[in-house]
Amino acid sequence: MARIQSPPILSQIRVARNYSEQVASLRALKDEVVGHAQRKEKWVQQGVLESLVKILQGNRPPSSLGGKESRSYTGHPRNLTEDELVRLQSLQLLASFANGGPSFLGPLHAVGAIPAILYNIFPLENPPQIVLTALRALCNIADATSLAAPGSDDAGALAETLFLLPGYLNAMYDILASDSTAAVVQEQKCLVCQLISRLCKETNQQNTLADAGILDALATMLASFVVARGEVVPRAEILGEPDGLNEMIPDPAPRGANLAAVLEAISAIIADSCFRAYQLICSPTIMAVFPSAEFSPSANQTSTAWNALEMSGLSSHRAKNPGAIDYLLPIVPIKQPRSLSSQLAQFPPLGFSLSRENLSQSTPTFSGWTPNRFDAGSRNSETEAEEAESPLIPWLIHLTRTTEGLERVMAASVLTSLFKAGFANPDREIALGVLIVPLLCQLLRDSVKEKEVNPATQTSAFVDQDTAVEWAIVERTPGVLARLVADSQPLQQAAHDCRAMRMACTMLKNTYEPLYTQTAPRPWSPNPDRDVDLSEGLSTCRVGPPGKLPIYAHKIKMRENSLKLLAAMVINDECRKALDQDIVPYMVESLFPVPAKPKSGKEKLKATDKVSEVILPIDNSPYGNNPNSVLIAACHLMRAFSRSVRDLRTTLEDNGVAMPIFRLLKHPDTEVQLAASGVVCNMTLDFSPMRESLIEAGIIKVLCEYAHSLNPGLRLNSMWALKHLVLSVENSLKKHILEELGSGWLVRLICDETEDEALRARARSERRGDPNADDDEDMDTEGGGGGGYQDDTTSWSSKYWMWTPKYRTPCPPKFAALRAQSPRMLRAEKRLQALREAELNPTRKARTDDLAIQEQGLCFIRNLMGQPSASLMEMVDHVFEEIGQDILFDILASKLRVKVLHPFTRRYSAGRDTRVLYPQAKVIEAVIYVLVHIAASVPRHRQLVISQIDLLKLLAQHFNSKDIGVRGALCQLLTNLVWQDDSSDATACGQRAHELRKLGFLAKLETLEQADSELDIRERAKAAVWQMKTGNS
Amino acid sequence: MSSLSAAFGLGGSDIDPALRETIFARFREKTGRMTSSTSTTTPSKHAFEARVADVKAPKSDINALILDYLMMEGYPMAAAKFSKEANLQPHREDPSIRARQEIQHAIHTGDIETAITALNELDPEILDKDPQLHFSLLRLQLVELIRQCNGGDINPALEFATKKLAPRAAMNTDFLKDLEKTMALLIFPHESLQPELAALLHSDLRRKTATQVNEAVLLRQTKRREAAIRHLVKMRAWAESSARTKKKDLPDRIELGLHGDDNDRRDGTHENGLEPMITT
């Protein structure tokens, strides 16, 4: 339609006689559209994007996707040839169109702009300016995508192309690993980092990036900042010599290098993985600048203070052997928390110190890495569970303390990942609470205070640089803080002391200030009648609906992150008590995809009688629609809340949480279902007031359906919730639940992994077409021996995995050889492989999931038969009928057996043909309690249990279990088995006791009675022994 | 000293005389202090001044500062000459410095269209992502158009305003006010304008916009907005005023010492350290 009057510039671009003419017309077009949203639309409608992409496709660089690099990338800007100029102009134009916002994403994708752009990011084939512009265009597209309405999200597709194809990975590696100091290269690096931190969200992408050496390239960049800051550990080059690491110390970071971007990309790749965190720590350049060595300067106030603290008992083991970096940090007196004292008992006594003797010497002295000690250390390393903490961790603490703004947040983020992965010393926890948490809280406080937003920013599609950085800081800080304090009582306390709760509440409230303009307003147009109908025309020329405003996206991110922070803090009782009840309605509104004005529970009840019948508005809420990420964060918060019985019965009930959660349980997105089912687990407990209304709303059907889900997490959570649901309800309801779940399915869930074998195979074939699917193998130690760098980095299988930096990082061969044989490197590689195996082996993961689900399934049966006790017999019979008496006992027995797995014969499995799986305490306990309930029924059922000789023999092996629960359950079982209902049962009871005694149970019980370490067990055993003896007499 | 004058004498084509004078003076003052610090000691010296005299600023730092100023403000030839004469290590040519100079020049001469084209050639993202800057430039272009049509045909100006400025102004109240003010120039005779409107026709607007553009380019390329020396001057002013509010023991006036010892008294109006040339 609009193509009829194709303007002259466009036809010139299409049919230019030579390059220079084309460049001229492209330039003219650029001046036309840059900064003019309306004109961008007009040109897109006239089909300009297609022409641009055609130009790019027609002018491909000489040899794209080329093989191994022989040249190294220098990145010197040079004068462009004419065809390159054409490409540059076209790329600039595409970048400018992408800048127009989400409405241009549709046509850009329709014309295939991304592949055309991607051909230009290869740094070896393209001049640096072109690579830079191509990367910018990609970044702009990624930015626009983040503002697009949910559903039209193409970031995932872009991420998959960019991060999973070896060609582009190599291109990114080449850019990041370039040692050029040219400004243009620094900007390229920065853009690649931004792409990574913006797009890399999936675990498989993170692993691929790590495997492709990109994490190591980033680590090298980080190390170059260490060098530039002059904070390399003294004498690192000497210490690194035996390992061939001395050549690995990089040049200082050049001007224009962006530390925050590097840290953010590293943190995006590592995320929550131990394996990748360790890969950063033992990246050769990091090891080179940070050798772990004890360091004792001649006379230093810090060390004097340390000694003073040590004398007064306020320091711990670590402070005795401080590394050089520790001298950059203030000394934190460590009051040893009770939980830590048991661990510390394993350390050598506090009186012995090497460093104190060294204090008298005038020169700095190192110990720990002299060759002799080193050899001894490496021999012992097999048995040593923990190795010394990397100085990277104190350095990151130091970095967080000495930087500002975004750099500070991102340094704290990387530090958090390493700390959470467990690579920090235990006493760092206290130090983090004193040194890091207050800094992050201060960043939050600054942002909460500065609330006034420029009115122009409220409605503008662009935010200026300063505001953008400020927002980035505010958005990320709560998330980092939440990750840091989660699961750590002392850190939660520290954050609470810094009033993080109150700030998180304020932030959450602020995000619910209504925002009436959410999309960029359409600009006034001098000739409105020519506005073309947006829904017409070819997809390549059709401009989509406008995206959200940056301030809107900012608000939603703030909402998500403040909810995360609250969830991490609310777990702590003290924090929860301090929480203002006013904030709860805001949390509850976050459970609605389209939130309304947050109201307190009472107001809400007044407004509507039944919440479930409210017809939700479909359109946009002025408070900002909640995307899945917010819904999930809100669910996690509710789950944290529901851990408290008091809040479960009061706060959550008063605010009507049940129905929104139920609605989220039926949300189409699996992640949301998963999060909601986590809350449901607690809301279906028998003391929860919300149970009735949930059952009424039909939760049983939904949960039973999810118990059949492919997603193991969802299966686990729904079995967990069902387990709670069947407790203390009427028999009819119990039977109904079992029927809805399907007894056959229940058997498959709890029985011997048959179903999950199939599930796993399916999942495996979906994830990759690897015929060598790994099974029950431990890590291969000999796998990493030889061979070169392999391109196939996507394989999970450990024997194909190669620690690339050991072989790939360019350096003289002499050092490479040294490094390849260095015990330190070998040890690191071995540990990396073990971590990788533990984290990535799908079989292992599936088995863990299976065990957890089996446990819940068994508990489900237990609760099915359990309370109220009046209905016990009926339910036991019902279960026998449904499942089959023999089948049930067989399954129970199989759970108690030691399993021997025979892996396939493979060349790497020499020396270890079988693998033994011991039954898990939790599962054993669940099995025993099922028996306990059967035995609590009528004598007929007790007799049944007694007749399972095999089962009882298996049980007898678990009397010396380390788990208290198992021993307690056994005592309970025996008490029940010899219980005498009335006089008519007397003889049978005596027989049962006799049987048990024959199996040697009495002797075992008596041992427990006398020798068990727990009082509770001794008492229970005493009762059981008494019961058995009286029953027998 | 002679090397410096040679540098500016030869490379003076791209540097305005006032600036040259400033740099000269600063340099002279610094070198003077370094060479004759002992001889200037007088018995009545304030403790603060004694401390000042103790501080030795290395010559290389001063040179680096000057070079940085020349580079950031866009004087490529002077910078090249200076680094050669002052025996600094041959610095990398900043690719944007020449382009920045051309853009500045175009704005100063009122050729905004050329400036926009050159800016887009240098880095199209600057205008694409900064509507404020783009508006300033376009408004300046409108002012130039109005200036050209003084008394004659106002259609080009009107059309330009309708097509390029009006769509933006409708979305932003600040822009709207600015546009309305500019359009008022079409109505009133230029000889008898209110001071507010007259300012639009003054060359200061060009200079201000040129500085804005320069800062935007610098920020994008070096992540710095201005030359280090400007920062230093601001810091000095801040330090002095905060020291005075805290009643620290300071001399009544701290001279900048820009114009040599004998000229200090004359220059007494700028005692807060904000020297007019540098803060514009």
TrEMBL record, chain A:
SMART domains in UniProt: ARM
Matches recorded under InterPro entries: ARM-like, ARM-type_fold, Armadillo, ARMC8/Vid28
Any one annotated GO CC term: nucleus
Biased composition (Acidic residues): 772-781
Organism domain of life: Eukaryota
Region (Disordered): 363-386, 762-792
Listed GO biological process terms: proteasome-mediated ubiquitin-dependent protein catabolic process
Compartments in which it is found: Cytoplasm; Nucleus
Main location: cytoplasm
Keywords of this entry: Cytoplasm, Nucleus, Repeat
Biased segments, Basic and acidic residues type: 762-771
Alphabetical list of PANTHER family matching this protein: ARMADILLO REPEAT-CONTAINING PROTEIN 8 (PTHR15651:SF7)
Stated name of the protein: Armadillo-type protein
Species whose genome carries this gene: Apodospora peruviana
UniProt lineage: Eukaryota, Fungi, Dikarya, Ascomycota, Pezizomycotina
From TrEMBL, chain B:
Family matches, as InterPro entries: CRA_dom, CTLH/CRA, CTLH_C, LisH, Ubq-SigPath_Reg
Segments forming domain CTLH: 96-153
Chain positions covered by the region annotation Disordered: 249-280
UniProt biased composition (Basic and acidic residues): 249-273
Function in brief: Involved in the proteasome-dependent degradation of fructose-1,6-bisphosphatase.
Family annotation (PANTHER family): RAN BINDING PROTEIN 9-RELATED
Protein name as annotated: CTLH/CRA C-terminal to lish motif domain-containing protein
